[in-house]
Amino acid sequence: MTNFSFSKLAFATLLLGTTSAHAADKIKFDFWYGNTGKIGEVVQKHCDLFNASQDKYQAVCTGQGGYDKAEQNTIAAYRAKHQPTVVQIYDAGTVNFMLSGAVIPAVQFAKNNGIEVDWASYFGGIKNYYATSKGEMWSFPYNSSTAVMYWNKDAWAKIGKTEAPKTWNEYEADLKAMKEKGVACGVAYDYDTWMNLEQFSAANDLPIATMNNGYDGLGAELVFNKTAFVDHMKKYKEWTDLGYAKLQTEALGKDIDQSFGEGACASIIESIADYKTFKQTATTFKWGVTMIPLLDGVSRKNTLVGGASLWVMQGKSKEEYEAAAAFLKYVTSPETGQKYIVENTGYIPVRADGLDLLNKAKFYEDPNNAGREVAIQSLTASNGTPVTRGVRLGNFTSIRKALRSELEAAFAGQKDMQVAIDDAVKQGNDILRRYEQTFKGSQLP
Amino acid sequence: MDKHATFSNTWLATALIIPQLLLVFVFFYWPTAEAVYWAFTLEQPFGGSNQWVGMQNFQTVFNDSKYWNSVIVSIIFALATTALSLIISLGLALLVDRRLPGHQLFSFAYFIPYAMAAPAAGLAFRFIFAPSAGFMAAINEWYPNLWNPATNGSHALLLIILCQSWQSIGYNFVFFLAALQSIPRTLTEAGAMDGASVLRRMADIQIPLVAPTLFFLIIINLTDSFVNSFGIVDITTHGGPARATDLMVYKIYFDGFKAQDYSLAAAESIVLMLLVIALTFFQFRFVERRVHYN
Lengths: 445, 294
Description:
A: D-Maltodextrin-Binding Protein, domain 2, 2 domains, 19 helices, B: 294 residues, 2% strand
């Protein structure tokens, strides 16, 4: 893997070296990113724009072929002492990077290199996720999203409603009514825990783990088997049995995005980042975006950020950091950074200054972007309660997988829902204890 | 006079062997040694610190009922793919060996699947066998829920078995065909003159004579199913549903690369390595006795 990325890197350097002879006297630094496909192209173009915007520095940007690969490759490269200066890491990698001892915290880096950042202007839901328990941000949010509900207005029109449901109970009543009106699939879902557990828990102010979802230390224990999450999953199972809801995964031939885009299923809970995709695929019916439903009698709290942020690695030269600072300034500023990302992808601005700029340009009034502001409302619905700052649990990737496997068993009828989620929590706690032991003596910042 | 041809220049021989030995050492023994070391320690992803924990990683592996599930699934997978793939490829080779018109075209076509990368094959199988969109969707229309690898574990396991067998048929076929073609024609012709039918000649003359090849292929196929199958799983089922296709090698890949628990993955690799060594040893010790080389 290391060799693979090095050869790619060498190739990229070679390419740049031959195409622009005067590039030799520029200060170069490496930036690795995880996005692929269309969004990967947007990131690459962001680099080109930065390189064209000045003639002192040059960002050598290399796609790693996926968020998980970007993390794996960075770890391998760091161990071989060939790490990039800046790397884009997804939300789930935050804990590993905070404990790695291999990064320069964003606040520190900004101070060292004279980047003026108004940290308070980052939206709460985004800021808290990438900040330590003391509120210091350790990475620069880059492409940010959150979960929203996409709903088919035509399907809801059949039951005489022009508004999306605000609570899960109202949702259930709508699904029942739609079923009676002949809508074959009211909601498509899969076992992705990001929507089902994490966003659901945040919006309803439910804990996922003790010690404030792990922010206060590595000794946290999972508690989602004792919250309304269990009933929530039972409800999904019931809806599936009643024919209101339909499981849609790649293995079934169609994922939830495809089934919504085709009009086969009338609603989904999905990332705002997919908005652009639906603008292209969901053209045969009217649809809207709204915040995810709530439990009855709950006041809405902020949902959690998804996407990725930019981390600065240790062990590079002063010049490289100077170049990286210029780059980070460029890609996070309202005009050249946030606006660029928002206009070219489905992501949202990460700071108030970015949003102001977009509002001035009447961006969200354009019918092509209608509804995208919902994500910002959802992320800023509250200032962050102790359990809606984020989820800071070690090896969360494995915990997600354990829960997913148990949900698969429960939905297939092999296990009772409560037993399945209890089992997932038990396995998850073993994973957490193992992680705690691996990082014995380390403290979460 | 010396009965053996010997090469007395040891110095030159050593010099010639060293590059090869070095390669083997760097790419095989060194990583293996590293894995053994990691298996007895707790290794942080970024390599910050490394504590000796003795047998703890192995205890974690063996005390985990999900791991034993993986072992069982892997054994079923390996036996089923090996049997399926060998039977089909031997059948195809016997037919092609009859040299009926067009046999060259078939021998070319049968080999092609082996040239395909596992993820590509997995993707193709995912589409073909997708219960609501692919070819199987038509069958599901007639018999609802007859086939659903997304929710039914046995179906998912069958899917990866079919995919892996399909891929290795080409490889096995080439070996069988070569072995069959090396059987002197006079033997089968003599059988034919004695009035043995085609099937009788296959059963009594050809198959016993390709036994060494069969033995070799059993070992290769079993080993391959154990250690070289995560690509298919990663594309088609991700080990699901409910861990029904969580092969040992996929678990290693997930724990090591996705979850960055290098120590656990190292311990799992060593268990897998020992299992494969034990299986191979068993076959050489007990099965090979029944194989007659020329």
